[in-house]
Design brief:
heterodimer, A: 198 residues, alpha+beta, Arc Repressor Mutant, subunit A, 10 helices, 5 strands, 53% helix, B: 242 residues, mainly alpha, two-stranded antiparallel sheet
Chain lengths: 198, 242
Amino acid sequence: MERNLRLIDNPVDRLARVVEALLVIASRPLTVQELATASEEDGERVETAIGLLAGRYREGKSGIVLEQVAGGYAFRAAREAAEACARLVERPVQRGLSQAALETLAVVAYLGPVTRPEIARIRGVAADSAVAGLVERGLIAEAGREEAGGAIRYETTPLFERVFGLANPAELPQLDDLGGDAEEIRARLESVAERRGA
Amino acid sequence: MSAVPVRELDLDLEAFQGPFDLLLTLVLKEELELADVEVAEIVLAFVERLAERAPVDLEGCGEFLVLISSLLELKARELFPDELELEELASDEAAEELAERLAAYRRFRAAAGWLEERLAAEGDRFFRVGPAPLAPAPVRTLARQEPAQLAGALRSLAKEPPAPSLRHLTLTFPPVSRFLERFRAVLRSRRHFDFEDEVGSLPRIEQAVAFLAILELRKRGEIRLGQPGPFDPITVWSGISA
């Protein structure tokens, strides 16, 4: 009895319950700073509380999982409940993303804030409808205007990171590691140009 | 929507059989002579595929045009190297730019592929999506103020403002008779005149009085008036000579 009482009164455990409550009412990931401000605690203690919660809310142990995503912490459903969840809720954000939308999203994710003409230049086709679709889904958002010309710039949103399960944008693979044959193509084309010049 | 990516367009040409994407790769790797490739056949294949599908895949058309024009440019350079000698530097630059654009595009295409795989892998993650909860609005407090100073500010606002001057609203109308005489004099020397030419340079108030004079002359049967349509120029004829 005495032992139980001591556990309940543990300040870290109490803070963990507060953080748990904050994460339950939030509909987006909360940063350590936001949790610290709301609970009037310092960040380090909040992180300790999060560690405690992460142990409780994990795959295989709970139907709710605490994850580090989009620069913060959030609860999500355990993967084992995915099928049941899919029967209950629609997911319009990630459903039916076209190849054009994915390519546009990739350009915005790597180069953002970026304008529509810049996206079109890379993809070789107009990006207007793809950009509009991604804005509607909430995966990208306006991020000010270009100084020269005033074209609207776009960048990815925290929802993008959340949908793709990224803790932060740095989790995207290095662009140089992708499309490995690009250098080779360039060298070949250059050699064609050189031979024609000779 | 049954749009198939342009790059997956199936080609059955004399020199090549397979998807368009593979053709591009082979050309870029110089494993296929572009001179042997019938570009017109590719265009035909695309147009036939386009005709089979509705609605028209505009994005696919755009992508196809970009790719086919790049191919045509490369082919033209290969077929007519001498004609382009003067522009050799420019063609090098064009080839370089094409290579860079293709390389950049391939990287982003690969990134899109990565995102697609990631999305599939994360497909069993469900989470709550909705507007962020409302945070309490921060209370904005005013700095301490001296009551006398506030009263002074209020007093200046409560003061009766000076009455606005209406002098500029007073209008002086010239007598209608002045214009009656003037128009009669004009019509003695000419058979007709254009109203706007006659009074266009006068102040608006005088133009209005002149118009009254015209109406008066018309009423007395001294003139005839003509105007083809609303807001068109008004022509005034002498009524006596008619």
